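Final report, Chapter 2: Outcomes

The project's central promise was a pipeline that accepts a single protein chain and returns its three-dimensional structure in a standardized token representation, suitable for archiving and comparison. That pipeline is now operational. To close this chapter, we reproduce one record exactly as it appears in the project archive, with the input sequence first and the structure output second.
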Amino acid sequence: MITAFLPCRKGSQRIPDKNVKDFAGVKGGLLKIKLEQLLKCKKIDSIVVSSNDERVLSFANKVNDSRIVVDDRPDHLGSSSTTTDELIKYVPSIVKEGEVLWTHVTSPFITEFDYENIIVAYEDALSKGYDSLMTVLKLQGFIWDEKRPISYDRNDLKWPMTQNVKPLYEVDSGVFLSTIKNYKNYDDRIGLKPFLLEQEKLKSVDIDWPDDFTFAEELWKRKV
């Protein structure tokens, strides 16, 4: 049994009303888009919309589909100071069995087809000894910290061809797929051996800042 967990906390500081404000002309915004995508994925058995935002809860309650479970999350787990680790520990109080597919409205370009493919990739990864999955964006270029390159060695070549640079992987927060047992055992939304599922750059778009929202709107308009 696969349960999609969709957290939507109240009071985004960087993008006010991020979850429900109009997005590229879509009323209901990112929340509407994501719920439609998840509901179209036949491999997902239920969708938990977890929020302390009355607008999110109201919108989800009006969707006529029995797979949607609305979780009125306690305010202390929906503030700007709430950590992801705290929310992870909360999930087993809602989801009792099976797998949890943790995703976000801020990944609008992950469609129902992508979710199906991600679940298939997860099932295949389990058969190969992995215990969870998370989506990532491959970074293969000249990546530095504040002092030095971390993706290549300038003592070898100062500017190697990028295709020869060892890739790094950025967690794009698109999907974390794991068993509820892993949540309980490790207080984490992945296990000890996660499979890193590389996504194309468009799918990895994560709306976190105002510029991201504007950029994603333009991409959405061109896509549709």
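Archive annotation: The CA atoms of residues 206 and 212 lie 7 Å apart.
This record, like all others produced under the grant, will remain available to the consortium after the project formally closes.
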